[in-house]
Model the fold of this input.
Amino acid sequence: MDHQSATAPLLDVRDLRTWFHTFSGTVKAVDGVSFTLAPGEVMGLVGESGGGKSVVGFSLLGLIDPPGRIEGGEILLDGEDIARASEERLRRIRGREIAMIFQDPMTSLNPVKTVGAQMDEMLRLHTDLDEGARKARCVAMLESVGISRAAERLRAYPHQFSGGMRQRVVIAIALLASPRLIVADEPTTALDVTIQSQILKLMRKRIAETGAAMILVTHDLAVVSEMVDKIVVLYCGRVVETGPAREVIANPSHPYTRGLVDSIPNPKHRKPRLAQIPGAVPDIRNLPSGCSFRPRCPRAQARCAEVSPALAPTRGTLSAACHFPILEEVAAAMATTGGERA
Amino acid sequence: MLAYAIKRLVQMAIVLWAVSVIVFLMMSFTGDPVFMVIPIDSTDAEIEQARRILGLDRSMPEQYWLFLQNLVQGDFGRSYVFRQPAMDLILERLPATLEIVIVAMLIAAFVAIPLGVYAGANPGKPLSRLIMSGSLVGISLPGFWVGMMLIFLFAVEWRLLPSSGRGDTVEVLGIETSLLTWDGWTHVILPSVTLSLGTLAIILRITRAGMMEVMRQDYIKFARAKGASRKDVLYGHGLRNALIPVVTIFGLQIGDLIAFATITETIFAWPGMGKLLVDSIYRADRPVIVVYLMLVALIFVVINLVVDLVYTAIDPRITVK
Done:
């Protein structure tokens, strides 16, 4: 606490391990993830599908269901370890301290309840406002996320809204109880491309206004690059690289991040073929020895099969879990791995 | 809405007409009822006379036409046996049957739905497995055996409840009911429990299946992420989404129990419609059987309409067209 008190973190996740005990073995979906988040900070949690990003998000809210379990580590919210909090305590944290925005707005709203009822529920749970005040707040919130005729729309059902509108409603619900942290799990993945940037802009604006911190879970580096202050890259349940967003995207030091960055289409440097990371995410129940990324890594050497690399400072403000990090700075477009074929 | 109402009424009329044709045809294959109503030593002339009086000397289409004409005028025919209007006989018995059916359905709903919700929301837990095994027993046990066991235990062994018959009744708005007297309730409880078991088990299993499906949905997780309590998540967000198939089966079961509570009514000597039907079949009392089946068809059609309306109340995505 002492020397850090100036920037006391809102959230301090230490060595989080969330495992799923299935019949076919233990899935270590999150295996030793640590990061901190300052008040108002926006963080991108990036990785391929199956990398454990969403599990981190659900762990923060205590929404891991059996056979899953938080096996170890700490989730310190203002210094309180909520990884071990009672269900009673967690219910007071959910929505009020940490709110969540889900991936698919077509399924995250209850089809048989009006939008108004679903918004009102959040306020009923977390505020002492009377009915009139709650309604006024709901109307104001709907308007603030760009939904017109809000008072009327409160009586509408989710199926009467388009996908983009529904996600606006979901964002409005998440913001209603003024949480200090918002976990957005792929909030634009299920939307049309044309709507995606609208929703992202809206989220950035509204969240900046409220001063909340945010964790943006996504597989899309292009999405986070515009929005976040810092990036945590996950691979097979572990943090492989972390650092300020600009630096991670411009000059990543981990080969995996490099591969992710290279696979973003860049209109300025048209290549006949877009770079891709060879291979696929390994079966998480049966990870390769040493570094999990080794089989797909262009820089892998014998040592990578033997010792699992720990997260350590690599270059400048970056940290990566790699025995042979990329130490030279390269322009993002000058791809090093796999991109120069053809 | 008006167009919908008219459409449904026309549909109901067509269904009832079709049922009347089928029932009438079936009746003509079940033998000559005249021998059931005349004394055993009647002469041929007397038999012929009885035929004429009952209208049985006419051709089948003629009989049907006559039946339809009377029907439209509100005359549903007279019982051969009781010499009373068949409809009156049935309506006299209807409240007794409705009583045990309503109590049975209430028992089924209030026991089955909470248990089904629990079993669906906690599929792996031992208590859920126990509930599901119990429901299999409920489905498998025949009603007549359960009824007799209940009589044996509660009436014979422990002497807690009467074994049969209907208790004291009071008249409310011209309807005799035993649900307002203590004695009435003691008589109602065993037949109702017997009647409810099968329905209870089915509704429980359907509720559970629906809840298991619903609990996987994102909106359940979203509700939890809001901080909603377990109870709110299960009953406020989950149950209503799982309710459509439950309501369907509930409706069908009500119709089924009203129409065919026969076995239970026989075991408990309950003076309801089911017993009347069995007696009428034994006595080849055609008018009563015909009216009974028509009434049952009407009940089913009306219940179906109500079920469809309930759908629209449960799920805003369903509209009447």
